[in-house]
Write a structure and sequence with these properties.
Largest sheet: none
Number of strands: 0
Structural class: mainly alpha
Number of domains: 1
Order of helices and strands: HH
Helix content: over 70%
């Protein structure tokens, strides 16, 4: 039951979380939804910038290791 039990709990948690998230979005006003969307866009932009920065650092360190 070890692996199967944890998989079940994880799937159950994911399904429960998804239902809760959908309900919370349905209860938001248009203004709240737009605000949420804009916040997600800002977060995505920051993550993309960080990802690009890390890639550049990785390439830089990879080039130094090859020398």
């Amino acid at each position: 039951m070890g692996g199967d039990g944890s998989e079940f709990l994880q799937r159950d948690f994911s399904e429960t979380y998804e239902r809760y998230h959908v309900e919370s979005l349905q209860n938001m006003s248009k203004q709240e939804l737009v605000k949420e969307y804009l916040e997600l866009e800002k977060c995505l932009s920051r993550m993309e910038e960080e990802n690009n920065r890390l890639r550049m650092e990785s390439k830089k360190h990879g080039g130094e290791a090859a020398e």
